[in-house]
Amino acid sequence: LEILVTILNENDNSPVFAQPNVSREVPEDTKVDTAIVAREELSATDADLDTIYYELTTTVQDTDGYFAIRGVNNPEIYLQKALDYDKFNSTTLLLYARDRPVTSPDHTNTATATITIIIKQSDTRAPWFLPCHYLHNDTSVCISSPYSGRVNISEMSTSPLLLEPGPIYAVDPDYTIRDRIVYSIVGGNTDEVFSVDADTGNLTMNRIVTSPDSFLLQVMATQVSNIRKYSVATVEIKVINKSNYPPYFEKGIYNGTVFAGLSQRSFVHQAGDPSTPLVIMARDKDFPDV
User: Which Gene3D superfamilies does this UniProt record tie to the protein (predicted)?
Assistant: First the structure.
C-alpha cells in the first residue's frame, strides 16, 4: 500500500527585516524621484515563503507625502516631494512588512522597520542684504530696502560713509552653511569715486566730488565658496553742499490760541490774532533759498 502525505504550510512565521533600524542623511536639494533607501536594504524575508506586502507611514506631523515606496511589493523608499529645510529637518518613517494584503481577512503577521531621515541644508539661496523683512511671513524670502547716504560736494571724507537704514551688510540665509560674503561695486561708480571693503562692506571715498549729480551704486554680495550665489543692492549717494550751520527758528517762543469744541485738524491761530493761523518757521544759513 503506497500512502502519499501532503504537509500544508501554516502561516506561523512573521516577516523579518535584516535591518530594523535605518538612518539616512538627505540633502535638501535632492531631486524628486531619487531613491533614498535601496530595496535590498529594506526587503523582509519570511520563513513561510509568503509574498511580502509593504506599507510606509510617517510619525512626524506635517511630513506626510514627502517619502514613498515604489510599490506594495517593492519597499525602495524614494523622494516624492521637494524638501524644504525651513519646514522640517528630520522625520521618522515606519515601514510595515505583512505576509498578507492589508485588506485580507486571514491572520496576518507583521514586522516593522524604523527609518530615520535627517535633512541636510543645501546652498539654495542667494545672500540677503540686511535689514530685511519676510515676504508675507514666508521665511524663505526676505526683502531689503535700498541703502542711501550723503557726501559733501568738493569735500573728501576719510571715514566710512554713514548709510540708512544701516551699513552695507549681507548674510548667507542658509544658516547652517553660513558661507562668507565678499562685496564689490558692479555699477554706477562714475570715475571710481567710491570703494567698498570686500570683507566689511564699508563704503569709502577715493576722491572728491565736484558736481551735484547723485550716484546710484550697485553693490554685489557674493558667497566665497559659491560665486553663483550673489545678490545686488542699490546704494543712492546724494551730493550736497556742506552744512556749516544748524537750522534756527525765527522766534524763540511761539504763542498760539485754540478754541474749545474745534474739530480735528482745525488751525491753531496766532495769539491775539484769531484770523491768522500760527506758522512756525525755521531757516538755515547754508540754504538761504530753502
Answer: Cadherins
Cell numbers placing 78: 524614494
Amino acid at 212: P
Cα dist from 184 to 65, 142, 165, 221, whole Å = 43, 21, 19, 7
Whether the CB-CB separation of 245 and 283 falls below 8 Å is answered with: no
pTM of the shown model:
0.71
Residue 217 grid coordinates: 551704486
All domains in the chain, ordered by first residue: 15-120 (2.60.40.60), 128-240 (2.60.40.60), 246-289 (no CATH)
Please, is 146 exposed, middle or buried when counting C-beta atoms within 10 Å of its C-beta (0-12, 13-18, 19+)? middle
Complete edge-to-edge strand list for the sheet that includes strand 90-98: 21-27, 110-120, 90-98, 53-58
Q: Over the chain (290 residues), what is each successive 10-residue block's mean pLDDT?
A: 92 92 96 97 92 96 96 97 94 96 90 97 95 87 95 93 97 94 97 97 95 95 96 96 88 92 92 91 85
Note the Cα 238 to chain centre separation in Å: 31
For residue 73, give the nearest of 49, 47, 46, 43 by alpha carbon.
Answer: 43
Other beta carbons within 10 angstroms of residue 194's beta carbon come to: 23
Instruction: Indicate if the alpha-carbon torsion angle 203, 204, 207, 209 is positive or negative.
Output: positive
Distance CA 140, CA 230 (A): 16
Distance of CA 85 to the CA centre of its chain: 10
Residues 184, 219: contact at Cβ < 8 Å?
A: yes
HSE-up of 239 (CA within 13 Å, CB side)? 16
Q: Round to whole Å and give the CA distance between 223 and 186.
A: 15
Alpha-carbon gap, residue 77 to 98, rounded angstroms: 17
Which residues neighbour 225 within 8 Å (Cβ) at sequence distance 6 or greater? 179, 180
